[in-house]
Amino acid sequence: MAGLLVAGATSDAGKSVVTTGLCRAFARRGVRVAPYKAQNMSNNSMVCHGPDGRPAEIGRAQWVQALAAGVRPEPAMNPVLLKPGSDRRSHVVLLGYPAGEVTAGDFATGRRHLAEAAHAAFDGLAARHDLVVAEGAGSPAEINLRSSDYVNMGLARHASLPAVVVGDIDRGGVFAALYGTVGLLEAADQALVAGFVVNRFRGEPSLLRPGLKSLERLTGRRVYGVLPWAPGLWLDSEDALDLAGRRSAGDRARRVVVVRFPRISNFTDVDALGLEPDLDVVFAADPRDLADADLLVLPGTRATLADLGWLRARGLDRAVADHVRRGKPLLGICGGYQLLGHRVTDPHGVEGAAGSDVAGLGLLDVRTEFAAEKTLRLPTGRALGARASGYEIHHGRVTIGRSAPEFLGGVRAGNVFGTLWHGALEGDELRSAFLAETLGLAPSGVSFAAARQRRIDLIADLVERHLDLDALLALAREGAPPGLPVLAPGGGA
């Protein structure tokens, strides 16, 4: 089977970007390529269709990578999705559907069935495509977790995949990180690591070359290229590592403030707002930062009850109420919508203690009760006179009061809007209608779908220009070269 593992010297090294760029670049060459990530740990997810046609859930990054590859997103591309609900507990999505929970104590043991399902999904993709580009998770050198790893070198061993390690030079220490990643691996794993990609370089290339040559000499492995730092580059992200710096566009006419919940999910819902020329989108967790918001957004959350408590503890509930009293618009999405209602109850302990019953913010005439069964939908409809579509991922069952006017599967009360639909603002027609209704803005003509495709093409252009794509394609087809040297202190079991 032909394939390539894109591993990272660290988290957020650029694995998703490199994988996306390779998928688009290989597809341009007529290769039937599929993306894959054995396990994601992320609250940013997307709904696609499973093999039986039912809506299913996968990580957002793999959904975008499928777009880059020109193939239909499917659960096999991200067979295991862990959605953190706390620091020690995650909800498990297996092949697109809920499959219980995993705790921190289960991390190193008790996940064999997940590994088997993930590897079977990879084998199925490989049988149906010319090549699979697999994205690793974190670093392959997490030696405390190697015995149970099925995402990085565990996957590489299963499928005899050659691996390239991506290092982020912008954060410093990239040579030590790349050398050390290989050196900490056991000998059989090292034999599959074929080389490196340096990411986010800015500066004079001639100053970098001596370091690259030394790295190649010391490791016996080649550097497949250096990707430059590209301003404004973004993709639908899978985690919130860089959330504080996302999509602030400077001094703009209107300010959109998104409350940054501790367990924020699907924050990509506001990506489309960040492309609007008359908006500045920022994330905030301090009540003072809400004071000058023209539009306030309460996004999705994986822990609605806990984040409602956090909101009150920080005084953000009063800031939200003040915003509404001033007549300014407020949008709640999924969990953010549910906590705007009168009450949120959890009789079955879906989020925490069974029997929880908490007062909401009381800004919408709705009540939410969590159910054990998750809702996954791809709805379409109309709102504010515009066509609309989105996707639903939630356990909460919302009961709407008789007098509440509907809005995108939710309700509206004056300038307070609530919806269960993620992704609705990506629709240009609906987004224009919403901004006209709430902020009086004229349509900008921005196409979000076109902007996303341009960003994917930009990444692919960078990959084609700065990486040895022929060598990477040959590596994926032929496997790691034989006789790669073992670096100390590797070689142990």
Automatic annotation (TrEMBL):
CobQ/CobB/MinD/ParA nucleotide binding domain residues: 5-233
Pathway: Cofactor biosynthesis; adenosylcobalamin biosynthesis
Coiled coil stretches, renumbered: none
InterPro entries: Class_I_gatase-like (IPR029062), CobQ/CobB/MinD/ParA_Nub-bd_dom (IPR002586), CobQ_GATase1 (IPR033949), CobQ_N (IPR047045), CobQ_synth (IPR004459), GATase_3 (IPR011698), P-loop_NTPase (IPR027417)
Domain CobB/CobQ-like glutamine amidotransferase: 255-428
PROSITE patterns: GATASE_COBBQ, GATASE_TYPE_1
Superkingdom in the source lineage: Bacteria
Active site location: 334, 422
Entry keyword annotation includes Transmembrane: no
Family, similarity comment: Belongs to the CobB/CobQ family. CobQ subfamily.
Name listed for the protein in its UniProt record: Cobyric acid synthase
